[in-house]
Every structure is written in C-alpha cells, then in structure tokens.
Amino acid sequence: MKYYDVHTHLNCDPLTKDVERIANTCLSKGILINDIGVDIPSSLVAVQHAKQFENVFACVGVHPSDTNKTPLKICIKELEGMLKDKDRNKIIAIGETGLDFFHKPYNEEEQTSFFIAHIALARKYNLPLMVHVRDAFEKCYEILHKHAQGLKIIIHCYNGSIAITHKLNNLNCFFSIPGIITFKNAHELKEVIKIIPLNKLLSETDAPWLTPEPHRGKTNTPEYIDLIVNKIGELLKLSEQDVQETLLNNAIQLFQNK
Known about the structure:
The protein has about 260 residues and is of the alpha/beta class.
C-alpha cells in the first residue's frame, strides 16, 4: 500500500452510487480508506462497505450537526450493537464526533453530551477517536483535556491556528490534513503543518467535499489522496517516497495496531 485516506465518506452521495468502482480503483492504486459515519444509518453503511471491500475500514459515530436526529441513548445503543463485533465489522475508530458551532442553529449542550458519550465509547472499546471541530476549538480542547486523556485522538480536516495547534500537540493528538492544504489561500495551514510532529501527521480527502487542486469544482474522491500527500511533502521538503511512507505508517500504527 502507498496511501491511507483516513477520513472519507463513501457512504454519502454521490460517492455511494459509485462505491464499487472507487474502492476497487483505490485498491489497485494502493490506497486504504476509512469510511466515516455521520449518523446511525451512514455508520451502518460504513460497516457494510468495510465488509465488502478489502481496503475499506469503518468509523462509526454521530456528527455534531446530526445530534438532533435521534436521542443520545438510542444512538449509543445502536453504536454499541456495531461495536460488540468490532473486529468482524472492521470498525477501527469512533466518530466522527465533536463540536460544530458553524452550522446554525446548534445546541451546544446536546453536542457536548454526544461528544462526551463518544469519548466514553472510545475508551470502553480501546479505539481511536475521530474528532470534528469547526468554530469551536477552545471548547473542544477543554473537553478533550478533561475527558480524553490517554486516548488516541485524531483532529480531522485540520485547519486550526498555530496557537491551538500547540495546545493540541500537548494532548498528543494526531492531525489529519485535508485538500485545503493545496488551496492557494491556505497560508496559515501551510505554516501550521511545520510545527506538527512528523509522527502525528495524517492525510485525508474528506470526500466528497474539499476537492484538492487542481480538481476544485469537481466531486472529491479518495483517488485524489496522492495530491494531498505530495503537497505535504513539498511543504515539509520531504521526498515523495519519504512522505508516502511516513503518512502511511503513521496511519497503520494508529488504526491497525491494536
């Protein structure tokens, strides 16, 4: 294998309609994929995809913007049902979960309750925690500092400031870099990755969104992960082979070595 797209959504349209071709093309290109649930139905589909395709693994959870769909107790019961057979279901992380104060209206108390419950699941099942955070970095840091010490934490689609990066570094977090890194106006992120420990860097597409250059305007796909990895290598002055091996090994150590 050459690449690991640690956060994508084969379970969301329009990728779901083309999932077999995408998964098989990625396999032929040496790309491993984490299919990320955003609610109970999409988490179940992620498990289905993981069972169906050799190079696909499932993450199960409820996105903070979807916490109003189903009561917390019911969500946790459904997630536990999948997690009881986590190995057969190829579940390698809890999430995505976290805080999103960008999409309005939002319920901070409800999002916080779901977030803490997901952290408890990650601890119970000894799995990494896949965290979504948007316009809520300080609050997210507070919760992680209080409840998630000792867990393997991935901040997905990372686009935080230098200041919050230092704080998250102190929590030993992993930072998953999306296609934003290829955008011409991503000036701060291009500086931020230089202060992230190399062994804490991961790569993701977050497909079908955030399509990297030069394909902006098209639907994103895990097939574009090489563009993100190569851009990271360029910014860190690493050879193509070195950045490929480093990011792949980081992800395999995190998700596959239990």
